[in-house]
Amino acid sequence: MNAFSMALSEDQQSVRDWLHGFARDVIRPAAAEWDEREETPWPIIQEAAKVGIYSLDFYAQQYFDPSGLGIPIAMEELFWGDAGIGLSIVGTTLAAVAVLANGTEEQVGTWVPQMFGTPDDVKVAAFCSSEPDAGSDVSALRTRAVYDEATDEWVINGTKTWATNGGIANVHVVVATVDPALGARGQASFVVPPGTKGLAQGQKFKKHGIRASHTAEVVLDGVRLPGHCLLGGKEKLDERLARARERAAGGGSSSRGKNAAMATFEASRPAVGAQAIGIARAAYEVALDYAKTRVQFGRPIIDNQGVAFTLADMRTRIDAARLLVWRASWMAANQQPFTAAEGSMSKLYAGETAKWVTAQAMQLLGGNGFTREYPVERMHRDSAIYTIFEGTSEIQRLVIARSISGIPIR
Ligand SMILES: Cc1cc2nc3c(=O)[nH]c(=O)nc-3n(C[C@H](O)[C@H](O)[C@H](O)COP(=O)(O)OP(=O)(O)OC[C@H]3O[C@@H](n4cnc5c(N)ncnc54)[C@H](O)[C@@H]3O)c2cc1C
């Protein structure tokens, strides 16, 4: 086990500084434009691919950093640059993590590179779990996967919603139910290869924040997938389903417990928390500078305790959130079980912190904070998603409450 340490190695510091430079020089200057355009910033993703930031190698290096801090450090810096562009750059990793968490080595080797493409021909990937009637309640998925033994194919029908990169992705990972009677335990994840017939983008959503990130419905109409597109393989699925049926027959709960979608979310929650910290830190820095230079009543506004104390609280919450994220990331990387839902804790606190800090920043900038002349109103809009996606704040509290009490609180 790696001892927990907050002293970053030279390597970690240089990666952080390199990402910070990219966020400052490439992402930030483009942030307002892509927010207004509400389109995927392909040239910026391509730029990130050219320097090696948008690549399987880069994420694998950060993912396998034994301290666990590689991913949170990277996320914080990129999202410090801009959250909408940041999500366009890292959205692919949610699908990649789904393959890493549920797939075989061969599936990882086949599909993950196709998710990123090459620097000359960049691609993105999408992870499609949420549905119109199954958001927080992931056990309620209706998208159905039926096995056709004659052709060794899976036939998938259903509608996914809120998919980041949905419809524009080269590779989609779709969570579907193979045995609805088993609830969450009857689900499996499938890779939908590029160009598969029957998959189409539905409505593209116009959003409040992270507007450079593409979010859309994905419609699956008679999609036929070769057997090898089932993540983990059929044998493993059959064994898992048999165990779940046995448990259900014995009166055990069929809908609760670890499932394909939850495995993906668990692994990604601290990383999502780190994104929120990046936004919060960016807004805090703007507010601190502004408070030192804006003069009212003959003195900088920071000379007022009311303003200075707000900044003190902003910084304290940001640092506390980072500590929770780093703890959870270290635990996950060092196989320490989450006994008090530490991953959910980190995402809950970081998401709420980003929303609160960015709101304070807007207030501290007065009228300027309310305009698009300054970035804090965009940061505030962007922060709002962090109490909603990857499990709302209420769902995180539910997970934590169940974990610390052992009681199936509803
Ligand atoms: C921009 C964006 C990008 C997204 N990207 C993806 C993606 O890439 N892939 C994907 O699969 N999904 C994605 N999502 C979906 C996201 O994860 C869901 O929106 C989220 O899980 C909430 O589901 P819902 O919107 O259906 O809300 P609901 O589940 O309907 O919740 C509505 C409200 O009820 C509350 N609530 C629900 N149940 C309980 C309970 N038991 N106790 C207390 N309160 C409760 C919620 O906290 C919330 O406040 C994305 C969403 C957005 C907006």
Automatic annotation (TrEMBL):
<dbReference type="InterPro" id="IPR013786">
    <property type="entry name" value="AcylCoA_DH/ox_N"/>
</dbReference>
<dbReference type="InterPro" id="IPR006091">
    <property type="entry name" value="Acyl-CoA_Oxase/DH_mid-dom"/>
</dbReference>
<dbReference type="InterPro" id="IPR036250">
    <property type="entry name" value="AcylCo_DH-like_C"/>
</dbReference>
<comment type="similarity">
    <text>Belongs to the acyl-CoA dehydrogenase family.</text>
</comment>
<dbReference type="Pfam" id="PF02771">
    <property type="entry name" value="Acyl-CoA_dh_N"/>
</dbReference>
<dbReference type="GO" id="GO:0050660">
    <property type="term" value="F:flavin adenine dinucleotide binding"/>
</dbReference>
<keyword id="KW-0560">Oxidoreductase</keyword>
<dbReference type="Pfam" id="PF02770">
    <property type="entry name" value="Acyl-CoA_dh_M"/>
</dbReference>
<dbReference type="Pfam" id="PF00441">
    <property type="entry name" value="Acyl-CoA_dh_1"/>
</dbReference>
<dbReference type="InterPro" id="IPR009100">
    <property type="entry name" value="AcylCoA_DH/oxidase_NM_dom_sf"/>
</dbReference>
<protein>
    <submittedName>
        <fullName>Acyl-CoA dehydrogenase</fullName>
    </submittedName>
</protein>
<dbReference type="InterPro" id="IPR046373">
    <property type="entry name" value="Acyl-CoA_Oxase/DH_mid-dom_sf"/>
</dbReference>
<feature type="domain" description="Acyl-CoA oxidase/dehydrogenase middle">
    <location>
        <begin position="126"/>
        <end position="223"/>
    </location>
</feature>
<feature type="domain" description="Acyl-CoA dehydrogenase/oxidase C-terminal">
    <location>
        <begin position="256"/>
        <end position="404"/>
    </location>
</feature>
<keyword id="KW-0274">FAD</keyword>
<keyword id="KW-0285">Flavoprotein</keyword>
<feature type="domain" description="Acyl-CoA dehydrogenase/oxidase N-terminal">
    <location>
        <begin position="9"/>
        <end position="115"/>
    </location>
</feature>
<dbReference type="InterPro" id="IPR009075">
    <property type="entry name" value="AcylCo_DH/oxidase_C"/>
</dbReference>
<dbReference type="InterPro" id="IPR006089">
    <property type="entry name" value="Acyl-CoA_DH_CS"/>
</dbReference>
<dbReference type="InterPro" id="IPR037069">
    <property type="entry name" value="AcylCoA_DH/ox_N_sf"/>
</dbReference>
<dbReference type="GO" id="GO:0003995">
    <property type="term" value="F:acyl-CoA dehydrogenase activity"/>
</dbReference>
